[in-house]
Amino acid sequence: IGDGVLIGAGVKILGNIHVGDGAKIGAGSVVLSDIPAHATAVGVPAKLLKKQVKEAEPSMLMDQTSFITDVGRGDYMI
């Protein structure tokens, strides 16, 4: 698994598979072959989407904490 890879929930990677840097794999996909760098793969079995976006690290661009608010005294409100 390369750097900055985004792997969706429930993904199965079966066998000796190489996933390139910055690749994205959609939730529930079953990966049976190598995924090149910066590619997006989805489905059962996983297939590459034709449109590839060259992003350095898609997992680093996602803001997964924007809905959390600090309400003081170390408490957090979601």
Question: Describe it for me?
Answer:
The strands form 3 sheets. A 4-stranded mixed sheet has the order 1-3-5-6, with no helix packed on it. A two-stranded parallel sheet has the order 2-4. The model has no long low-confidence stretch (mean pLDDT 80). It starts with 5 loop residues before the first strand and ends with a strand. The chain has 78 residues and is mostly beta strands. A hairpin with a 2-residue loop joins strand 7 and strand 8. 5% of the residues lie in helices and 26% in strands. It is built from 1 helix and 8 strands, in the order ββββββαββ. It is globular and about 35 Å long.
Question: Can you summarize this structure?
Answer:
The protein has one helix at 58-61; strands at 6-7, 12-13, 24-25, 30-31, 40-42, 47-48, 69-72, 75-77. By secondary structure, it is mainly β. The longest helix has 4 residues, at 58-61.
